[in-house]
């Protein structure tokens, strides 16, 4: 996110660039319910069955190079660069944020535990699961327009969610979610800071994320790890997460420190997460380990240290690599490491979380999870009750999802031009932009600036919503 802008730099015209042929999609996998947009099957238990595939498969990106765009923009802010639509996925960044809720069962588990340590374990697993859907998702979501919103109510999962693009420069997305049983509140704002390193693009997701467990009168805060996309010049794009994430329980003083490890020269640490939970006296209560692409386990510190010592002794007995067998760092830089091993299980560990299986045709649907596939679904009657600023109504995203790439490109350019014109008009009249559902304030737990939900969205008075589409 952050590539698209109403201050486009470079002279790349998407509408005039030929888009490659569509990939083949197994017709038997195309839609198991036989329903498309506007048609949602009802199961016997009365719960709506959401779609299991997109209306059209993704286009091949093999004929395009990110570098062909970025090389014209060296020295410019990445937020000022317009990328061709073929590098997008048919979701807004606001919908991508909603994917935090895919593993909401972990919040429910945290609410149900009486032990604060077990609650922290569940919250830590939820924080890791929030980035798991990004695995192999190298397509960028659409940058939200100023004032764009997204809502999602899932009665089957027990939550409702609302988000709004509250700033365009810098791009800031604010969100708020609550349990339908009034058991939790989940909210925050994200300001992705982008850096271009020549061979990779790094996105540092600034902004605080807050989870409140109302039954236990507890609040947890954290910030997501840094995300990096490699091989933007040549080769296969691949993604890693790295950095230290600190989850603080502001009621008990407990803290969880998670280290998302960079892959390293030979990819030994690729996707690995390692950390611990400590109490307010800094005593380690348990150790957490696993991979953000796979699963997360926890065990007691003594067992973990004993295992690590025996593992170290075993590795020292192995034959050392000859110097000529070691590839230089320059040769290996940004190459996708081939790592076959999975998480090494330590006897006595407890499973905290495991990633959901993706649909069998996920690779032809932008590597979406089943949850992500349903996010842009426009069900019958929904258009009449949605805010006119909802992502589902964006014509460029809708056309891309339906496989109409030329139309999607033209619509994207039209929307960006409309946004530029609206900004110039406000500047001419000296009128400030006012957010609709969120306001600037202070996070009550960290004391840092934050965007807070103003309330009232689900009263559905959308009379003063801006015309952005």
What does this structure look like?
InterPro entries: OSBP_sf, Oxysterol-bd, Oxysterol-bd_CS. Residues 1-38, 308-335 are annotated as: Disordered. Pfam families: Oxysterol_BP. This is Oxysterol-binding protein. GO terms for molecular function: cholesterol binding. With 469 residues, the protein is of the alpha+beta class. It has a domain at 67-313 and 338-364 and 382-393 and 430-459: Porin, CATH 2.40.160.120. 20% of the residues lie in helices and 26% in strands. It has helices spanning 66-70, 93-98, 105-112, 116-132, 301-316, 329-332, 370-373, 395-401, 405-429; strands spanning 41-42, 48-49, 88-92, 140-142, 149-154, 159-167, 172-179, 184-196, 200-206, 209-213, 218-222, 226-230, 238-249, 255-260, 272-278, 284-291, 295-299, 350-354, 438-442, 449-453. A 6-stranded antiparallel beta barrel has the order 8-9-12-13-11-10. Strands 1-2 form a two-stranded antiparallel ribbon. A two-stranded parallel ribbon has the order 3-4.
What is the structure about, briefly put?
The protein is an alpha+beta fold and 469 residues long. It is built from nine helices and 20 strands.
Percent helix: 10-25%
H-E order? EEHEHHHEEEEEEEEEEEEEEHHEHHHEE
CATH class of the domain at 67-313 and 338-364 and 382-393 and 430-459: Mainly Beta
CATH fold-level name of the domain at 67-313 and 338-364 and 382-393 and 430-459: Porin
Instruction: Please work out how many helical segments DSSP would assign.
Output: 9
**What shape does the CA trace take?**
globular
Strand order of the largest sheet: 8-9-12-13-11-10
Q: How would a textbook summarize the main sheet?
A: 6 strands, antiparallel, barrel
- The chain-level mean pLDDT equals 82
Just name the CATH architecture of the domain at 67-313 and 338-364 and 382-393 and 430-459: Beta Barrel
The fraction of residues assigned to DSSP E strands is 25-35%
Structural class: alpha+beta
| Overall strand count | 20
Radius of gyration: 23 Å
Tell me the distance between the termini.
19 Å
- Poorly predicted tracts of residues: 1-39, 319-333
Region (Disordered): 1-38, 308-335
Keywords: Coiled coil, Lipid transport, Lipid-binding, Transport
Biased composition (Low complexity): 1-13
Family: Belongs to the OSBP family.
């Amino acid at each position: 996110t952050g590539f698209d802008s109403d201050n486009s730099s470079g002279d790349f015209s998407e509408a005039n660039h030929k888009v490659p042929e569509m990939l083949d999609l197994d017709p038997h996998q195309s839609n198991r319910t036989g329903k498309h947009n506007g048609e949602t099957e009802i199961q016997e238990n009365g719960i709506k069955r959401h779609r299991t595939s997109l209306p059209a498969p993704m286009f091949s990106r093999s004929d395009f190079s990110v570098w062909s765009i970025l090389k014209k923009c060296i020295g410019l802010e990445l937020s000022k660069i317009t990328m061709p639509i073929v590098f997008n996925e048919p979701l807004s960044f606001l919908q991508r944020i909603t994917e935090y809720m895919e593993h909401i069962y972990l919040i429910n588990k945290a609410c149900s535990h009486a032990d604060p340590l077990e609650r922290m374990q569940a919250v830590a697993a939820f924080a890791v699961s929030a980035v798991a859907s990004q695995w192999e998702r190298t397509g960028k979501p659409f940058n939200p327009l100023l004032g764009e919103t997204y809502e999602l109510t899932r009665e089957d999962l027990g939550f409702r969610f609302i988000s709004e693009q509250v700033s365009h420069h810098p791009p800031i997305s604010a969100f708020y979610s609550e349990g339908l049983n009034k058991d939790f509140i989940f909210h925050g704002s994200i300001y992705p800071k982008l850096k271009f390193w020549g061979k990779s693009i790094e996105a540092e997701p600034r902004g605080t994320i807050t989870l409140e467990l109302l039954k236990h009168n507890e609040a947890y805060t954290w910030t997501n790890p840094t995300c990096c996309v490699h091989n933007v010049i040549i080769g296969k794009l691949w993604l890693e997460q790295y950095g230290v994430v600190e989850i603080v329980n502001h009621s008990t003083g407990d803290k969880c420190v998670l280290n998302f490890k960079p892959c390293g020269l030979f990819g030994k640490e690729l996707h690995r997460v390692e950390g611990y939970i400590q109490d307010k006296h800094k005593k380690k209560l348990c150790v957490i380990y696993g991979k953000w692409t796979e699963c997360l386990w926890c065990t007691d510190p003594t067992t973990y240290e004993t295992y690590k010592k025996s593992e170290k002794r075993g590795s020292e007995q192995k034959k050392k690599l000859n110097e000529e067998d070691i590839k230089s760092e320059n040769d290996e830089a940004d190459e996708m490491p081939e790592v076959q091993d999975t998480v090494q299980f330590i006897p006595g560990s407890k499973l905290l979380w495991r990633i959901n299986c993706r649909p069998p045709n996920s690779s032809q649907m932008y590597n979406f999870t089943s949850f992500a596939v349903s996010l842009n679904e426009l069900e019958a009657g929904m258009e009449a009750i949605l805010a006119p600023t909802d992502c589902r109504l964006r014509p460029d995203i809708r056309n891309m999802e339906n496989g109409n790439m030329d139309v999607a490109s033209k619509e994207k350019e039209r929307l960006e031009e409309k946004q530029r014109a609206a900004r110039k008009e406000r500047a001419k009249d000296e009128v400030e932009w006012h957010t609709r559902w969120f306001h600037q304030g202070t996070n009550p737990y960290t004391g840092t600036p934050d965007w807070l939900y103003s309330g009232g969205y689900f009263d559905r008075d959308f009379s003063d919503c801006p015309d952005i589409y």
